[in-house]
Write a structure and sequence with these properties.
Largest sheet: 6 strands, mixed
Distance between the termini: 41 Å
Radius of gyration: 24 Å
CATH architecture of the largest domain: 3-Layer(aba) Sandwich
Helix content: 40-55%
Shape: elongated
Strand content: 15-25%
CATH class of the largest domain: Alpha Beta
Structural class: alpha/beta
Number of strands: 14
Number of domains: 3
Oligomer: single chain
Length: 431
């Protein structure tokens, strides 16, 4: 078991540890850009995006992974390491293990994305698919480490991992002047702890904001209980943050110095992913989009008019999940509309409906007919239509038009997320 994992003792990480890590990993880590965002005008903040999804394996995890590997003794390097991960840590440790000629075994739960599993195999790692969740995968990894003499490297709580993750803060300070706040996606807490140690050593004025999905709010739960505590994890778009218990080292380093913790709802994460694709041309996974989600949801309005850095921590999102996120983002944004209408089944009936919709510039994405269960008359057909509109106001215009021209109409809820407190259901489980 690695140092401090859920023990009564924790390992202190200093600013010097982070500067040492920055020096040692610089030859193997990309210096990712931190540029001003087109989202600044929309949000009323001066937003900068730290694009760490541009690392070789698509996430910030490479920083800690490389430093942890470099700090191994010659004997431990030759024997090899083992890790448990849903994906990003596994990819990072596999990539840098290959670069440094260190044997790597990764234990990944059965729920891990297929893309990430395949990538680890391509990087020559010994991949073991076992366990229904991260807790079970981690337990097996620790057992194998003891049995085979491997070094177990926790993906978010190992001291060298935390120090490596903190190097992102040093880069941000060099790239952006007069920062008011840095928003940090938070799962196990390693990135948050590293950023806090680095930033607070140099500037007490910069606020550090941790952000989680409300479906995996383990750090917020720890703050509430006064210690790391097992937290129920539900399916979330931010799967990279789905850690049931924050690391003890990370918790001890961050708990007294994090300025605010925010939990965001799934719909806002979907909208944030959509905004980043549309306005920044950035493909970011749910975990990386959480900071923007908090801003779009109005949970960081105290920073209006101020300079805020968002860490886009990862971009490893399956293409099927990305498509689903974009559609659900459009729906939450009031731009994807579904309705049913009973129209004439005589020649031209559906054509008239389509022409009516097209005349106001609405795009039809899908049309489904239903004849057998229509009870009004044999000359009618029920049509289910999915449309894409410009914005919420355009959707309202469509709704009024359809109701004005057809008697039997049923619209799905058109209340845009910006105009309501949503009744959240699982975005991942819906068809």
């Amino acid at each position: 078991m690695d140092i401090g994992e859920y023990s009564d003792q924790h390992t202190t990480i200093s600013f010097e540890d982070i500067t040492s890590a920055a020096y040692k990993i610089r030859s193997g880590i990309n210096l990712t850009e931190c540029s001003k965002s087109h989202l600044s005008d929309m949000t009323g903040m001066d937003i900068y995006l730290k694009k760490d999804f541009l690392q070789n394996t698509g996430s910030f995890k490479e920083r800690g992974a490389r430093y942890a590997l470099l700090m191994l003794s010659k004997e431990k390097r030759e024997k090899g390491i083992i890790a448990a991960s849903l994906g990003n840590h596994a990819q990072a440790i596999s990539y840098h293990g290959l670069q440094l000629n260190i044997p790597v075994t990764v234990v990944m739960p059965r729920i891990a994305p297929i893309m990430k599993i395949q990538k680890c195999r391509e990087l020559k790692a010994n991949v073991i698919i076992e366990g229904n969740d991260m807790a079970e995968a981690r337990k097996l990894a620790i057992e194998l480490a003891e049995q085979e003499g491997l070094t177990y490297i926790n993906g978010y709580d190992h001291p060298h991992i935390i120090a490596g993750q903190g190097t992102i803060a040093l880069e941000i300070l060099e790239q952006v002047d007069q920062i008011d706040a840095i928003v940090v996606p938070t799962g196990g807490g390693g990135l948050l702890a590293g950023v806090i140690v680095a930033i607070k050593a140099l500037s007490s004025k910069i606020k550090i904001i941790g952000v989680e999905s409300d479906r995996c709010a383990s750090f917020s739960k720890a703050l509430e209980c006064g210690q790391p505590i097992e937290t129920k994890i539900e399916g979330t778009l931010a799967d990279g943050l789905a850690v049931p218990m924050v690391g003890y080292n990370a918790w001890a380093l961050a708990k007294d110095n994090v300025d605010k913790m925010v939990t965001v709802q799934e719909e806002w994460i979907a909208v944030a992913i959509l905004r980043l694709v549309e306005m920044e041309k950035c493909i970011v996974e749910g975990a990386g989009a959480c900071g923007l989600a908090a801003i779009l949801a109005g949970q960081l309005d105290e920073f209006k008019g101020k300079r805020v850095v968002l860490i886009l921590s990862g971009g490893n999102i399956d293409t099927t999940i990305l498509g689903r996120c974009l559609e659900r983002g459009l729906a939450a944004d009031g731009r994807l509309v579904k309705f049913k209408a009973t129209v004439s089944d005589r020649p031209g009936g559906i054509s008239e409906l389509c022409k009516l919709i097209g005349n106001i510039g609405v795009s039809i994405k899908d049309v489904i007919h239903e004849r057998a269960w229509v009870t009004s008359d044999v000359f009618s057909v029920e049509v289910k239509v999915v449309c894409e509109t410009r914005d919420y106001a355009h959707s309202l215009e469509l709704r009024e038009l359809i109701f004005a021209n057809y008697k039997k109409v049923k619209f799905e809820d058109l209340r845009c997320i910006k105009h309501r407190k949503p009744d959240i259901t699982s975005l991942l489980d819906e068809n």
